[in-house]
From TrEMBL:
Pfam families: PG_binding_1, Polysacc_deac_1. It comes from Glutamicibacter uratoxydans. InterPro entries: Glyco_hydro/deAcase_b/a-brl, NODB_dom, Peptidoglycan-bd-like, PGBD-like_sf, PGBDSf, Polysacc_deacetylase_ArnD. PANTHER family: GLYCOSYL TRANSFERASE-RELATED. Residues 1-28 form the signal peptide. This is NodB homology domain-containing protein. It comes from the Bacteria. One of its GO terms (molecular function) is hydrolase activity, acting on carbon-nitrogen (but not peptide) bonds. The keyword Kinase does not apply. One of its GO terms (biological process) is carbohydrate metabolic process. CDD domains: CE4_NodB_like_6s_7s. Residues 133-310 form the NodB homology domain.
């Protein structure tokens, strides 16, 4: 680009704005603060293709334009992110910004909407993105209800709604719950859900002997290969019991604390705000989110964030 003294440039003030835009790329100021010295040329001037080495791609900021923005948008689309358009536009606007922020969050990058070397590297990675991992919704304990029939009927409605929403719930029931006929294992499995042991009487397993732990984990009438220890209490003896029984030890990493008197909305909003791909969300059948409307709200909220539920 020819060097044009500012004073001469001002005499062109009557020319269409387009000319000014060509001479002074909008992103010039942004490029000056870009952390990567190798990419001093503004995004709008530099050209990119999928063959451009990751290290040579310019840092992109909101409102940048050009083929490098187009490439970034294509990479997001490839990973099933919604950029606010069905095809790359070359304009880094709000739809793309939301996708970049979500991508950065999902990949535990600094979520600042600035596509620098680290974000480019993860975008370019051919590894299965974390994004495709689903969120696992899990419910412990036992459905509530004034009678066992009421509890079981309400539970079955929830299980069917979940199936209709394409959700595969993981349910950790106690032997006491099954004894009281408050949960229908056969129906849950018929609806495609996974039913695991949550012990017979819900004790803290770390306080028991190996043989006591094994007796607690095995629920009469429940054939399964997975269990969740109450309170997540685990020690070496508990792990030995699991491995001797051939049970998978299932814990969680997102705790809704639904049992602390939270409302349905508080629980569902917490899940929507905090569940990221691959997370296992802990809830309880006898608290506020084990019903059709809560599951619908979670599904809708996570879908909006392009997060799948397993
Ligand atoms: Zn429990």
């Amino acid at each position: 680009m020819p060097h044009v003294p500012l004073r001469r440039l001002l005499t062109f003030a009557s020319l269409p704005f387009l000319l000014l835009a060509l001479l002074i790329p909008a992103s010039a100021a942004n490029a000056a603060v870009a952390p990567d010295a190798a990419v001093a040329v503004p995004a709008a001037v530099r050209s990119c293709s999928s063959a451009t080495p990751v290290a040579s791609r310019p840092t992109l900021n909101y409102k940048d334009t050009g083929s490098c923005v187009k490439l970034m948008q294509q990479l997001l689309l490839n990973k099933a992110y919604k950029i606010g358009a069905s095809a790359p536009t070359g304009n880094y606007l709000s739809g793309t910004k939301a996708a970049v922020l979500l991508f950065q969050k999902n990949n535990r990058l600094v979520a600042d909407a600035v596509v620098g070397p680290k974000t480019w590297a993860v975008l370019a990675s051919s590894k299965t993105p974390k994004f495709t991992s689903p969120v696992y919704l899990t419910f412990d304990d036992c459905p509530s209800g004034s009678t066992s029939t009421a509890a079981r009927t309400a539970s079955n409605t929830t299980l069917k709604t979940a199936r209709d929403l394409g959700m595969h719930l993981r349910l950790y029931v106690t032997g006491d719950c099954l004894k009281a006929k408050r949960f229908d294992v056969a129906y849950a499995r018929q609806m495609g859900h996974t039913v695991c042991s949550h012990t017979n009487t819900h004790p803290e397993l770390t306080k028991l002997t190996l043989s006591q732990i094994k007796a607690e984990l095995q629920i009469p009438g429940l054939t399964t290969n997975c269990a969740r220890p109450p309170y997540g209490a685990v020690n070496t003896t508990v792990r030995t019991a699991f491995s001797q029984l051939g049970y998978r030890l299932d814990l969680w990493n997102v705790d809704t604390n639904d049992w602390r008197g939270k409302t349905q909305t508080e629980v569902t909003n917490y899940v929507i705000a905090n569940a990221r791909p691959g997370d296992v969300v802990l809830m309880h059948m006898n608290h506020k989110a084990y019903n059709s409307s809560a599951l619908k709200a979670i599904k809708a909220g996570l879908s909006k964030k392009s997060v799948n539920i397993k």
